[in-house]
Amino acid sequence: MKVELAIVGAGISGAAAALLAKASGLERVLATEYEDRMGGLLRGLFAGPSFAEEAELMRRAAELPYEFRFRAAATSLFFDEDRGTHLIGLQGPAGHEDVEAERVLLCSGAFEKPREARRIPGSRPAGVMTPTMSVGLLDRGYVPGRRVLLAGRGRVVDGAERRLKERGVSVERLDPALWDIAGVQGRERVDGVLARHVASGEERLWPCDAFVYAEGRIPCTFYLKGSDIERDENHAVVVDEAGRTNAYRVSAAGSCSSAGDDEHRSSAEQARRALASLLSWDD
């Protein structure tokens, strides 16, 4: 399969890029997505008011005539010097496939950093998860807990709180700007979180049967291992102001890139800027 443009990821940035690709007159476009539908890991939050613009973006992108390949994980990306095109390895339900693309836009998103990434001490009981994991459980019909301690700030955490409360879950918020997480308690399941006040040093135990926590992101760029595309110390794809990488006709946008933000507020605009630059690469 050969396309003019391959978009790796169909979340916020991937959907925005696909819409601009159509407006720019591209006909042979393929968008790949690891999940089973558009929206990426944040899709469970799009029904809330904080993501109204992104929900509309998904609705419009779903009407595009392009192929969206779901449950397709990118496994590699290399430049074929003989053909002057890029080869993207995809692994899906039907097996492995190589896609040949004239231009590539990386929009593969990021995972939330869990407690392990922050080396929060304590036991390792069940019931400790990230905000999007808690929302994912709700979408599959599971309730993460009945008394949830939710640590964090921003619209992703706000959206998770709203979804949990809609299911009748009691949610208590902990502001990480005021409290440091000092430890997780519990044997088979979490039963409390110890926090230390930043200013006073006071320690407080917050009883809970589920602890929802994330701080920062882990860019989903593992498929670039072995490629020539530069990544920073956090594994984010290094891009310039126009979203271009160090590799010919490869750009990146959103939370997988060094220009990304944890709240995904700039992802759509980054994608539009990166694609516009990508299409004019040889001009």
From TrEMBL:
Keywords: Oxidoreductase. Transmembrane segments: none annotated. This is Thioredoxin reductase. Residues 160-273 form the FAD/NAD(P)-binding domain. Gene3D superfamilies: FAD/NAD(P)-binding domain. Pfam families: Pyr_redox_2. One of its GO terms (molecular function) is oxidoreductase activity.
